[in-house]
Amino acid sequence: MDIDLNQLQLKSAFLSMQEVNSGTYGGVRLTFANPDLKMLLADGSVRELSGPTGPNSLPLSPTTITMAFASPLSITANSNVSFLIDLNARDSIKTTAGAVTGISPVASVAQLPASGTQPIEDLQETTGLISSLSKSCPSGSITLTDSLTGLAITGIQFDGTTEFATGLNCNTLANNQLVETDVELLPSTGQSVKFFAKTIELASDVGGQVLEGTVFQVNNPTQANTSQFVLLVTDAVNLANAASGSFVTVTADLTEVTFDIESTGLTVDPTAFASGADLIAGQTVEVRVTSDVTVPTSVTCANVSDNCTASANTIRLKESTVTAQVTGTLPFTLGSLPSLFGGTALFRPLSADCQSCAVSSINVVTSDQTVFENPGGITGLQIANTVAVRGLLIKNGFAGPNPPGTGSPQLVAARVRVL
Questions:
Q1: 19: Cβ–Cβ under 8 A, 6 or more apart, which residues?
Q2: Which phi and psi angles does 316 have, rounded to 5°?
Q3: Residue 385 belongs to what domain range?
Q4: pLDDT of residue 291
Q5: Domain boundary residue among 72, 89, 112?
Q6: Residue 72 confidence (pLDDT) above 50
Q7: Comparison of pLDDT for 318 and 222, the residue scoring more
Q8: Residue 265: HSE in the Cβ half-sphere, 13 Å Cα cutoff
Q9: Domain end point (choices 256, 284, 318)
Q10: The whole model's pTM is what?
Q11: What count of Cα atoms within 13 Å lies in the side-chain half-sphere of residue 283?
């Protein structure tokens, strides 16, 4: 299966269920092939490295790794054992003098708890097509073909406690709908596990055209009542001209476009993302477009200057992941930000009211909903820790016109991991 690791930052995806013989096992073996690495360069272009052969070859060694369990694991008949595999993408990329020289997979494995009523794992924002729908509302079950892995997750149950969104409900749920779900993996008896959908929302109408990606820059359009931004695409639905890694300039008529925030359980004022003035580089957005992406002759949309374009009627803010250093407490701030935020190597428009500003820091807002993947929670964080934070990125009044601008964006955190 092909896995897009960029989409799995601080998230989990279901890989497979395997039946094994009773016995004692020492670890898990993984085999890798055909690594594909896209690098965002300081000039705004994307360099694609793939392997192991070709003009931009990327050696892969070793191709197989074995991750040992902390102690030998005995598996008996009719029992369930679950594992979390964590692939460290950053450590797997090998460099010399700043140049990527190859991929050497670095991974670890941990056994997940499978007792009581607590979920074994949460599979957040799992997107896929519904099939094998069986329902007697408010309950039922679906099979979901995961867009990320291509695997069919069968027997996902839902009931009256499942939260439906974007106009969807049990009665309107149907086969062939593209939905986004938060799925719990639950312990069970026998030789299987249970899947339960905590949330189900429509990701796209059947036949709808959707772009998802990271806001790369926000332009200052010349037309009134218009918003325009450049999107670095990570996923596209029903759009032939926007592969992952493409740049698309999105234009929205503010008299017609709808802005909203994905329902994540985080407490965010809906007015914090209600217009084009609330866009800022680094945000992850889902864009429903009115037609296919327009591509000028003899370009590939691989650079901002290619000027591939699309028009939007809905722009939805989704969770972003920012990897940076802890620089202060508010309850904490992030500094040494990626060049996407306009560091010294890359100055470009970050928003319509900040044509030359660089974002120098981001204030992280935590709550009872924030999950800390480090001992001690927020009190365990130290200045200069490198952390990955996943949450909703809000412009929060950040403004220009001169570097470094005024105010700081906010990242309302859902999950924090010390790297």
A1: 191
A2: -115, 130
A3: 320-418
A4: 87
A5: 112
A6: yes
A7: 318
A8: 15
A9: 318
A10: 0.81
A11: 32
